[in-house]
Write a structure and sequence with these properties.
454 residues, alpha/beta, elongated
Length: 454
């Protein structure tokens, strides 16, 4: 019997035995080792071998080992972890897949086998799907592609991605999607509108989002405890469209830095939305800032923008509207050379900002057109990136007139590859018009918005 175990150890190696033991869960133990309480006792190779020996003696006799059990454990050990084929396909679909990724060097740029994902997106859909080890960030090889995370605890602890065109994170249940994550969007991406949408309970919490164009956050604690650098607009709504039963404290305890001296719309709508958060704006910006804890569609509440801090810059102009009596309590406005106007309706008792802001009953910073967020009604980000046509033409040089060859051949080859991401074709003209309008608005740097006061 001893010689048989030595042969088994020599053939498979103690390292593999340890790996199988470490990757065996309680359900496997109850199936493969009836009567055992837990896999916890199989904490090393020796314990696992002892368990296998006992099992083989019970069922197969003293001279035989159940190699099928070992084979099943080995297959599970190989299946677990980060599947590069799923990543290259842009489809990590299912529970507990594409997890613990530790891709380094060239393998950290996705996809590793092409310029684009088949559908121009990396989709992580399931529960506990898509994660990576600390210090092993990933990047998209080519710009113009979206990151889509759907499910519970998906793209979480940790999930750091750069060169992303747009990001959509959503959860209909427990949430925590895209929490403890980092998304660095592509600067000056001509193929995508670099928007980010986070919808659901604790979606995009404790996260970092860089080079964002506009950000939409909906749901309980969505986009809370986060750091965001953005160019355009911010929309925070207490109520999730995916999980409306849980709401409030959206965009709370976070820092939002607007880096472009453009027009900006900030909406903090619902129960304790934007509470304890910090907002900083660039010089010569025109800002419309609304805090309304009882805005339509939020379910009502109180305390929008309470204890928040707004930092202006030289030449900046802000229209501030705190709608309810219990909104904007202890809100602080630091002018820093800018100017602030507030609607005097029901706001005279807010000493923290009425001492530095001017009373008015109309907009003073001009008409501002809110930007249409590409993923507002589309959790798949399908509307955020344009179709792409790649045309490659190769041609040989002119024939050599001095050549003594009897045959001269000139070849021209044209190859056209068209990539049409799903659900995008019919929206192309509308997106193009919207992009041109946005570009013209930026070039003019109009600091305007017609703001509505009640």
């Amino acid at each position: 019997m001893t010689s048989m175990w030595l042969v088994l150890i020599h053939a498979l190696g103690l390292g593999l035995i340890d790996e199988i033991a470490a990757n065996t869960d309680p359900s496997d133990c109850s199936t493969n080792f009836p009567g055992s309480a837990s896999c916890d006792r199989y904490h090393d190779g020796a314990a696992f071998l002892q368990a296998m020996q006992s099992r083989s003696q019970q069922t197969l006799g003293a001279d035989r080992v159940d190699l099928e059990i070992l084979s099943q454990g080995a297959k599970k050990a190989l299946r677990a972890g980060c599947d590069i084929n799923m990543l290259n396909d842009g489809a990590c679909i299912g529970d507990d897949v594409c997890e613990g990724c530790n891709l380094l060097g060239a393998n950290a740029d996705l996809p590793t086998n092409d310029q684009f994902f088949p559908n121009r997106e990396l989709r992580c859909e399931g529960n506990r799907t898509c994660s990576q080890v600390v210090g092993a960030p990933l990047a998209f090889v080519s710009a113009g592609q979206a990151m889509v995370c759907i499910g519970d605890a998906t793209c979480t602890d940790v999930w750091f991605i750069s060169n992303v065109g747009a990001v959509c994170c959503s959860s209909a249940n427990d949430g925590d999607t895209c929490s403890n994550s980092s998304f660095n969007l592509t600067v000056n991406d001509v193929l995508c509108q670099n928007d980010v949408c986070c919808d659901g309970t604790r979606v995009c919490t404790n996260s970092t989002m860089l080079e964002v164009e506009s950000l939409l956050c909906r749901g309980l604690l969505a986009c809370s405890d986060s750091q965001v650098i953005l160019e355009q607009d911010l929309y925070c709504n207490a109520t999730s469209e995916f999980n409306p039963s849980s709401s409030g404290s959206t965009c709370s305890d976070s820092t939002f830095t607007f880096v472009v001296n453009d027009t900006h719309v900030v909406d903090c709508l619902g129960d304790f939305v934007c509470e304890n958060s910090n907002f900083s704006f660039n010089q010569n910006s025109a800002i419309s800032f609304e805090c309304d804890s009882e805005a339509p569609g939020t379910g009502g509440g109180q305390g929008a923008c309470n204890n928040a801090t707004i930092n202006l810059a030289p030449g900046a102009c802000m229209d501030l509207n705190c709608t309810q009596d219990d909104d904007c309590i202890d809100l602080v406005v630091n002018l820093n050379g800018g100017i602030c106007w507030f609607n005097m309706f029901n706001q005279e008792n807010r000493p923290n900002f009425v001492d530095v802001c001017n009373k008015t009953n109309s907009s003073q910073c001009g008409p501002i057109t809110p930007q249409e967020i590409c993923c507002r009604d589309d959790p798949s980000c399908a509307s955020c990136c344009v179709d792409i046509n790649i045309t490659t033409t190769t041609q040989s040089g002119p024939p050599d007139v001095n050549s003594t060859s009897t045959t001269t051949t000139t070849t021209t080859t044209t190859t056209t590859t068209t990539i049409y991401p799903r659900n995008r074709r019919n929206r192309r003209n509308r997106r193009e018009h919207r992009r041109n309008r946005r570009e013209n608005r930026r070039n003019r740097r109009q600091h305007a918005r017609q703001y509505r006061y009640s």
